[in-house]
Amino acid sequence: MANEFPQAMVIGGSDCDGSAGIQADLHSFFMRGVYGTVALTAAVAGNSYGIHDSVTLPLPFIAKEFDVLHDDLDIKATKTGMLADADLINTVADKLEQYDFGQLVLDPVIMTKFGDMLLEEAAYETLKARLIHLATVMTPNFYEAEHIVGRKLPDKQSIVDAAKELQDLGCKNIIIKGRRDPNAATVDDYVLLENGKSFWLPAKFYSTDRRNGTGDTLSAVIAAELAKGNDVESAIRIGRAFVSNAISEPIAVGHKFGPINHWANEPIRP
Ligand code: PXL
């Protein structure tokens, strides 16, 4: 039997309460009708109160996951999640250069909503040097974009400039998420595409504590759409709408900062 069923991969960490990390990615792949695979990098002991512990997997094991996935599957798009440190990024970059795992969505996960660090500061330069130029799409939030370009982004023009700077580092398409004007009812993402087209993508702001996994879900839906052959702009728009729906109808899981609700969307039956 041929191997043409759409397959996507996440390179990232497990979050044991299921709200973020590879659990949110797999929920997203599933909802968008794409078969999900994982190169696991790390695991965190997290719940709706915060991250309480974390470990990274041995680098030779992580490298082996890439080898066996390459030997057997036909992965059409890949996204990154928690990459933890510079050595881990180097291992991942070596494997992405060695094999074709389709288009790369680089979600430069740096910090959780609770302020816990998922990427050490010393690794920012490695991320810039080894991964940005491999990416079809990069999805930093406002905070991550500030850390990667190394300066504050106080206004809209500074975000436009930062996106161009990330594109000059070699990433084809950029979405910088989540600039919120406190007086506005929307939260605005900025999109810069490979062909030079750019636009602000406003989304309704929902005041809720149940928003864990929003970033993971956006990048996972984008990867799922690319795996099915969709174009980048449509993938970004579908991803943003999916996340808005998932925030708009909370589910009661955990006591504090709970997960978004993937079921608020219509599942795609492959
Ligand atoms: O949402 C970012 C994220 C990514 N990966 C893992 C996480 C989190 C946030 O908690 O735990 C493993």
Keywords:
UDP-N-acetylmuramoyl-L-alanine:D-glutamate ligase, 270 residues, alpha/beta, binds 3-hydroxy-5-(hydroxymethyl)-2-methylisonicotinaldehyde, single chain, 36% helix
Please compute the radius of gyration using only Cα atoms: 17 Å
**Helix and strand composition category:** alpha/beta
CATH topology: UDP-N-acetylmuramoyl-L-alanine:D-glutamate ligase
Oligomer: single chain
User: What kind of sheet is the major sheet?
Assistant: 9 strands, mixed
Instruction: Summarize the helix and strand pattern as letters.
Output: EHEEHEHEHEHHEEEHH
Strand order of the largest sheet: 3-2-1-4-5-6-7-8-9
CATH architecture: 3-Layer(aba) Sandwich
**Span of the ends, CA to CA:** 17 Å
Number of helices: 8
Q: At the first level of CATH, what is the class?
A: Alpha Beta
Number of strands: 9
- Fraction of residues in helices? 25-40%
Strand content: 15-25%
- Uncertain regions: pLDDT < 50 for 5+ in a row? none
The count of domains is: 1
Bound molecule types: 3-hydroxy-5-(hydroxymethyl)-2-methylisonicotinaldehyde
What average pLDDT do the residues reach? 95
Full CATH superfamily name: Ribokinase
Q: Which shape, going by the Cα principal axes?
A: globular
Please characterize this protein's 3D structure.
The protein is an alpha/beta fold and 270 residues long. It has a single domain, classed as UDP-N-acetylmuramoyl-L-alanine:D-glutamate ligase. Helices cover 36% and strands 22% of the residues. The chain contains eight helices and nine strands. The protein has a nine-stranded mixed sheet with strand order 3-2-1-4-5-6-7-8-9, sandwiched between helices. A hairpin with a 6-residue loop joins strand 7 and strand 8. The longest helix has 17 residues, at 232-248. The protein is globular, with a radius of gyration of 17 Å. It starts with 6 loop residues before the first strand and ends in a 22-residue tail after the last helix. The mean pLDDT is 95. Bound molecules: 3-hydroxy-5-(hydroxymethyl)-2-methylisonicotinaldehyde. 3-hydroxy-5-(hydroxymethyl)-2-methylisonicotinaldehyde binds at residues 12-13, 15, 20-21, 44, 46, 51, 81-82, 109, 112, 118, 213, 215-216.
